[in-house]
Amino acid sequence: MTEIPFIYDLDISDLRQILADLGEPSYRADQIWQGLYQQYWQMPDEFTTLSKTLRENLGNILRFNALRPVQYLVSSDGQTRKTLFELPDKRVIEAVLMKYDPSTHKGQGRRTLCISSQAGCAMGCVFCATGQMGFKRNLTSGEIVAQVMYYARMLADQGERVTNVVLMGMGEPFHNYDNTMAAIDRLNDPDGYNFGARRFTISTVGLVPKIRRFADEKRQVNLAISLHAADDEERSNLMPVNQKHNISKLLEACRYYVDQTGRRVTFEWALIAGVNDTEEVARRLASRLKGLMCHVNAIPLNPTTGFHGQATSRQSADKFKETLEQAGIPCTIRMRRGIDIQAGCGQLAGSYLSL
Ligand code: SF4
To answer: How does pLDDT run across 310-324, given as a tens digit for each residue?
Structure first.
């Protein structure tokens, strides 16, 4: 049995072909594209620019709703919203919207969306709920796109837009490289959603060959590396991927990326009390990052049930930042968001699956 294509998996050229096969003029594809990405229409009935017959035909040959929201949680301060989606094969993934107060972005605050690239994850980082779940499968490009369009639609109802998308939810985006890039390219299309490449951030555990490929492609997309430790033994304990791609090889690839693109790298650092939040670790980190155009984003650990580590204290976080900055490495301490709705990656899916 052939599977019914999911509409968000299609490029405009695929749509043109489908419309041609139906004996429809090519501009119908543009109407559908605009309906999807500019009007945020979701179901065939909403495509009022098309005839009823064509809408019915499309409804028969294409799947419009491959992501079914099964849980929607809002944090107590109303600023973080998390949706758990069920996929057609019953896998579940999650995406989180984080709102920030109005400040910079055209009269609205930042609306940062954290999306998933895989159901589950093969990387096995010990502090991560998704890693504890194991790998299920890659998401299609359309399943990645659809997470963004779900929130785009929700925000459009309030006269707002998504301002940033981070691939930091479930999964390792570079382990699903082609589908991730196809999704970014589709969302980037000026005739569609027109979401700027510079507004995307890919977060990776450090798959070295993929970082080099990404550098060679000279994309405008931001690169973030989950680093979390300054020596190999410590990092391998937290992130098994380090046994294959150690810190030296990883930082070499980062230097290559900066040389190729002229863009800085962000290092993500989950501050775990007594493990990687000390002044000594900060000094070691600073010496490894010396001369590299980079920024360290440190965030107190979001505790998960499967990992005994605890979040750092505010005091230790501030000292960590100060030590790095004295050594010339810019550092920001981020706030943890949505703790009350399990907004750390994979936490909601994990609790849903164990129900
Ligand atoms: S932190 Fe990211 S890469 Fe590591 S297990 Fe979790 S989802 Fe996978």
So the answer is: 889 999 999 999 999
pLDDT in tens, 50-59: 999 999 999 9
Neighbour-count burial of 355, counting CB atoms closer than 10 A to its CB (0-12 exposed, 13-18 middle, 19+ buried): exposed
pTM: 0.93
Q: 346 C-alpha vs ligand 1 centroid, how far in Å? A: 9
Q: Where are the alpha helices (DSSP H) in the chain?
A: 12-21, 27-37, 52-61, 129-133, 141-156, 177-188, 208-217, 232-238, 247-261, 279-289, 314-326, 347-353
Task: For ligand 1, say whether the CB of 176 is within 6 Å of any of its atoms.
Answer: no
Token pair in block for residue 216: 């060679």
* Spatial distance between the Cα atoms of 157 and 66, rounded to a whole number of angstroms: 21
Q: Report how far residue 66's alpha carbon sits from residue 141's, in angstroms, rounded to the nearest whole number.
A: 12
For the chain, helix (H) and strand (E) counts, in that order, are 12, 12
Nearest to 173 by CA among 249, 122, 238: 122
The closest of 64, 165, 178 to 116, measured between CA atoms, is 165
Which residues are known catalytic residues? 94, 345
pLDDT at position 119 is: 96
Residue 354 above 50 pLDDT?
A: no
Residue among 65, 66, 83 nearest 74 (CA) = 83
- Cα of 125 vs centre of ligand 1, distance in Å, is 6
What is the C-alpha to C-alpha distance for residues 124 and 236, in angstroms, rounded to an integer? Answer: 11
CA dihedral sign, ordered 22, 28, 33, 39: negative
Confidence of residue 93 (pLDDT cuts 50, 70, 90): very high
